[in-house]
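A reminder before we start the practical. When you read a complex entry, don't treat the lines as separate problems. The point of joint prediction is that each chain is placed relative to the others, so the output describes one connected object in space. Small molecules and nucleic acid strands, if listed, are placed in the same frame. In the example below there are two entries. Take a minute to note the order of the lines before looking further.
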Amino acid sequence: MATAVQTVERENYLNSNYGIKSWLLTTDHKRIAVLYLISITAMFWLGGFFAMMIRLELLTPAGDLVSSDTYNKLFTMHGIIMVFFFLIPAVPAVIGNFVVPLMVGAKDMAFPRVNLLSWYLYMAGAITALTAMVTGGVDTGWTFYTPFSTTYSNTHVIGAAIGIFIAGFSSILTGLNFIVTIHRMRAPGLTWRRLPLFCWSNYAAAIIMVLGTPVIAITLLLVALERAFHIGIFDPRLGGDPILFQHLFWFYSHPAVYLMILPGMGVISEIVACFSRKRVFGYEFVALASIAIAVFGFLVWAHHMFVAGISVYAALVFSLLSYLVAIPSAVKVFNWTATMYKGSISYNTPMLYAFGFIGLFTVGGLTGIFLASLGIDVHVHDTYFVIAHFHYVMVGGGVMAYMAGLHFWWPKMTGKMYPEAWAKLSALLVFVGFNTTFFPQFILGYMGSPRRYHAYPPEFQVLNVLSTAGASILAVGYVLPMIYFLWSLRYGKDAGPNPWNATGLEWMTSSPPPTHNFDETPVVTWEAYDYEHQPQEEITVGH
Amino acid sequence: MATSDIGDIQVAERALQHHFADMEQQRDTSSFGMWMFLLTEIMFFGGLFCAYLVYRASYYHAFVEGSQKMNITLGATNTAVLICSSLTMALGVRAAQMGKPKLMVILLLITIVFGFGFLGIKAVEYHEHWVNHEFPGPSFHFETGDPAHPATDPQHTEIYFSLYWAMTGLHALHMVIGIGLVAWLVIAGLMGAYTPHYYNPVENVGLYWHFVDLVWIYLFPMLYLISKKHGG
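Here is the predicted structure of the whole assembly.
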């Protein structure tokens, strides 16, 4: 397979036709993935810019760089952009869109036009939300808690809510497309038990997209209606119940955090198997753990509301249910490490990111157990401990996995290798920068520093300076890949169809793949991650 | 018959999209996709149903008073209209399946007429509520009509009306979209797009139409028939 000679002139999805129209009206899942890649990267930089402003403000104890109103807007816009316009679509819409149809041996997603529609909805939602931000911003926090958001805030809540509402439909359609594609478009012989774990985890994430997103859509619609017409659903002055808002909001937004991490877990499964040259240990358990996380994820939402005034018995039940999520998560972590055990490991960039993911996700997950316990949660609620916890999961987990996946499939997407040495350096910078940024926040939070203030007591300055310094390192770690990925488009070495000598149908077609993915529909007669029977060749490219 | 069969199959082949192996896979896929979409719709309405249940439990008497203002005759008529429209829709799908495009077009046109009938009656009801100040907001005005329970708070009845407008409004929006979809089927049907080998758009729009009807089947008792006895 690896010896197949690939001519440079071979037609692929990138050179099959040209012009702006051929991109904006494409129904090819690979081109749509590239459209998503560009737009999501832009949103990432914008959200990162807001994060940098936050960190710069917190360099000194006094609130001197921006006013408290501006600070409120900064963290709100950072949250909205990063959650709804980066983390949720990142792995599924970019990597999933590109890779899932290839992995299942299909010519395209089940509904190619719906796929394109979901990109347009994403763009419409992003532009609406950005308009709200440019014309004055939002200051409610990304959670839109009522009655502040519906009555008291004087900012552009309706615009931001409608932007998220529209982007939500993009997410719903993407999820629907994944579920139907994985059910109906698999190549002959590709049974569920032979399905790559990346497909399983995207399937689990798609369940959350399909079942959860409509609920946040209707909830934000009610917020907008209440703001516009004072209908009194959530406003206690009119007899409404603000806790109901929190229930409806977290019914989606808690599963949504699993929606951000699950596809990333799929990426890690692929990479750990490939760079350990072994079948994923306990394949069935890892696959079903994804589904279990999606299902349990729907039963734990009220752990965000322990101090919001829910009954102590409800809190007790939700606390216990939240512990349950630790089981499938731990199954995954243990099985990845067991996969590596006695494997022949190579330390390429995707694997470095995977190592980072496993370590940081474990820290993020374990601190999640702290927060699920009622006693500790009351103590650290609304402090930097919570911030550090979810950044360990979402940035240390989600973004690391996204970076891992981009490096892993970049050769497939573009046909070019990125420069390995630079990539390793940037992976290291990301890991060091990330920990320097967020570990001090665990301590800050434990000592009682509350979130969402632009000033703080002077004794917290050392840890805050450390955190800001780490954020600068992290920024360099993210800028570097941007540069060398673009560089590689022109100067990168040709990747060949399978630079990692990996299993999986996506590596059996040329890089970049032709528009129809496969010249003949593949017939699958082997298990996923059949590395034992894969020709034992060194990974030749990239050293 | 044989020649028309060949013609049908040719229509079907043109309708086969490039990424499917055969018509069967395409049909399965599209109807599975539609069912998934309806699942998201259930969750979408589910948020409102959840809010309704919470407030109905909290402010039962206020909700009863609000529901007294509903015009049950019009509501019941509309329920009947929608059920009839579902029947003509189902027969329309059947006609498409049996290869009777003209009959299908007629049945779908009747469905559209029923759809407009529903929206017209709904508009009359909306107008009544509007002129009676039963629209939430600054102009909302509600006098408790039940001396036995003077304690009910007009604000709580306002929540009832907020939910009434939000739920029936969202339902009406779905009806408008549905009418548009059926109209599209009629145009495509007149152009001979559907044959017994290829009629999944008709089937899918039918599913959507039945779903929207079903939502109303729940909305009608929940909003109109809470309790005819005062205080229940």
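Discuss with your neighbour: The CA atoms of residues 52 and 163 of chain B lie 7 Å apart. What might explain this?
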